[in-house]
Amino acid sequence: MSDKPRKPAPKTSFFNDPVIRGxxxxxxxxxxVAFVFATIAHNTAENLQRxxxxxxxxxxxxxxxxxxxxxxxPYSRASYYWEAFLVGLLNTMLVSVLGIFFATIIGFIVGxxxxxxxxxxxxxxxxxVETIRNIPLLLFLFFWYFAVLxxxxxxxxxxxxxGSVAINNRGINIxxxxxxxxxxxxxxxxxxxxxxVVALRRWTKKRMEATGERFPLFSTALAxxxxxxxxxxxxxxxxxxxxxxxxxxxxxRGGINxxxxxxAIVVGISLYTASFIAETVRAGILAVNKGxxxxxxxxxxxxxxxxxxxxxPQAMRVIIPxxxxxxxxxxxxxxxxxxxxxxxxxxxxxxxxxxxTGRAIEVVFVTMLVYLTLSLSTSLLMNWYNRRVxxxxx
Amino acid sequence: xxxxxxVRTDMIAPMAPPPSTVxxxxxxxxxxxxxxxxxxxTIVGVMFLLWIVPPLYNFLIGNAVFVADDGAACRIEGAxxxxxxxxxxxxxxIYGFYPQDEQWRVNICxxxxxxxIVPLLWPAAPYKIANAVLFxxxxxxxxxxxxxxxxxxxxxxxxxxxxxxxxxxxxxxxGIVCSLPLGILLALGRRSELPVIxxxxxxxxxxxxxxxxxxxxxxxxxxxxxxxxxxVTVDKLLRAVIGxxxxxxxxxxxxxxxxxxxxxxxxxxxxxxxxxxxxKSMGLVILPQALKLTIPGIVNSxxxxxxxxxxxxxxxxxxxxxxxxxxxxxxxxxxxHQAVTGYLFAAAVFWVFCFGMSRYSMxxxxxxxxxxxx
Lengths: 394, 374
Prior knowledge:
heterodimer, A: alpha+beta, MetI-like fold, 2 domains, four-stranded antiparallel β-sheet, two-stranded antiparallel ribbon, 11 helices, about 5% strand, B: mainly alpha
């Protein structure tokens, strides 16, 4: 037997070669996209020139000339546009953080309530979820702003709760806590107490893994957190007083005024997103195999341990990714506050600033960049948490 | 022969279950009063219901004003919802500023749409493909010609006068019809082996998904006129539809990608080994299975698209929510509950559509479930 020289691979037409074909397709798509972008750029430049508009980001350093009624940083109409931008950004972040906080708590409660064996409770939770999920958020916000908060009684006829919280059509007035200088000691004591609790938690975990002995961590931690700052407060003689809002003339003076726009967006977005979070929580708990519950029961675990040590940790794996999506949705949805006049980023920057300066491209570009950054950083944070709760499988 | 037997030859009648587990009493026990904590929850729940239901009933039905000529009857102390106001403004809520004499055109569109969509959604109805082509390709053209006018002897009605539920449904339908094909293409592009196409699709999808719809609509309304060549004006309604479509296509793409990823690898390899080229393997083997898996995701996207159409009111289009919102300033019907009644009406309309869609998707999911999901 002699080795025959191997036949060369059969020649295919060069157009049928998948590699070359793929490259041709890609080149075609690239050229098309480049052409579209070039056309847009050309048209835009022409249109801008015709309208005698200038471009550039220099407007950030000119005086804004408009007022914003709800700011977290000092701001006046003499401030620059970049300060207005910052006010809007901080207001967006404030609503997002508060919304995420409340929506998570309400969502977990409702999600677990929907699975409750109690007929009344589970039906109430189902009713809540199915109603809220199927109406638009904007409508829900309008309802809270125009139909509920704006139709509260006038200032003189405010509802007063506990003698210190006043609710009227100009918002909610709550007392402002005033801390004297000695109170710093109490804050330090609180920090120390938190440090002790963290160390204690580490120690109990280590001991449990080594010996299997349990330690009543929750009640001890609670005692430390209350006791240590409490004792320091008593001994240092620090004083805590409240600046209670009081009716003076035509409005309330003192305390903190939460304007109706702010209350409406926080309440609305929390209740709305909570209904979606409730569904992800329910799906997550249902996704845990029934055998896990039975295994925990057969180990003789009591109800609370079973939920805390077996069911919830496994459900969290399923819950976290869709929950991240809901958080991202909440951050993006906070922009709807613009429709009820709450001065967040879209309203301050894409609304007033854009109208006053006319720099449409720059303003839209910056706004989108901000939301892109917020979304990406939230998903990075949640991905990090997700990696922590993911079960390490063999 | 011994007749003695140690094994029972006849079955003993089963004992009745404990009375606490059967009948009304048993149901009450297991569902409401099984433990002290459960009993407490029941009491709290019932007290909540007693606190909220009677006033709600009085407001919605008991003290509500159903028939009235103007707001006077709704301004009486203790009057409930002012349904007469809704009834009076119904024409505006459905047609917006569409000329009264031409509203038969809108009605024809509604009737035609209903006549096409019912057999499309009803599984037993025949001619599905022809029906789908009619509904998704021919029907939008007919609607455009009929509503816009200016040809076939119909008078021209500019899109600025369209409004109400009509516009909400138009934007929703146009968004659904345009964004689904675009979303499928984007999903396929994202799974492509060609790096340039993959990167472009990822960039497009992630950009749209990261920004709120309201900025997209703002962008569509302030930037599209800048992008267009000189002399070309883009219709306001069309701008909103483009914005909604691009935005929703990115979300649909992610839903479809989930289905593509859930298919076992063997399906791709089987299609390849049959010698099918890319369009055929996708169209005949992969997509039919992947789309079936993604029905819940796609319908969820449609539901959120339909709810998101309400945002076009922010850029000044008179959709259902905006007509309700602008009717609040109607002084003739001014009453303390005018706003609440309006929002309840709008919420009920949106709720019916969204809830219907979600129930239909659950029904289809069960019908199409062939047990092949992994």
